[in-house]
Amino acid sequence: MSLIRRFTHVSPLQEYLLERRDEGLIGFVPTMGALHDGHLSLVDRALEECDTVVISIFVNPKQFNNAQDLEKYPRTIEKDIELLGDREVVVFHPEFSDVYPDKAYEVKLDLGNIADVMEGKFRPGHFDGVVTVVSRLFDIVNPDMAYFGEKDYQQLAVIHRMVEVQERLVEVVPCPILREESGLAMSSRNMLLSYEDKTKASGIYRLLNEAIQRIDERSPKLLADELRAEFTSEGFDLEYIDITHPLTLETLHNEWVDGARIFIACYIGGVRLIDNIAVK
Description:
globular, alpha/beta, Rossmann fold, 9 strands, Pantoate--beta-alanine Ligase, Chain: A,domain 2, 11 helices, 19% strand
């Protein structure tokens, strides 16, 4: 017998969660589906720390600025349910109209610099869509704790800022990046890669790791310039490389700071991949 409870509509989910609130903490893992071990690590962390765990599976069109990217995004709901196995969780997989009864629903916040750089620069409107859907899902689920992976590090910073601005009583829990044996960061988009492209993509982590071995001899600007040249020479279709402050996400030029991070976005075989690594 499956331990998974499935809901597609808001009211029945909220009625169930109202009953569960007396039992303890409610944890929430928002996803766009096409689940992998990275997602499962968030779910397992939530199960360790909370009494009820909700995982949402919803491909949010409002955060895509590229119609082809939205169309190609994998949708594998039954496989996702199967992958969750015997975990005792609540799965919320709504239709667009369940999440947005008002099609024009939108949340606009002053997020500052963190939403303007990197992903914000190259994917206009992306973080408006992220804030809109996460805010709406938080309203629906009303979680005590919400779990996000550090692979989408900038998104995590945006969610922290959103919670602060909206004065929400939810703890945002960052979780480490999970990687495949090759070092490639786990991502739903990886399933769109051919075998050859996936092998090539493993070079992302290799080059990032090699770069952090050189920080004692390079300024952030020089290292970023070297990385751009290295990725380009290995045939990556590079969108950006940036080395930033871990909290403000401001680009570092001459001086290193504790916890600085290197970010990359690139295309391989037409598939957009992102990754980041902390400089220690």
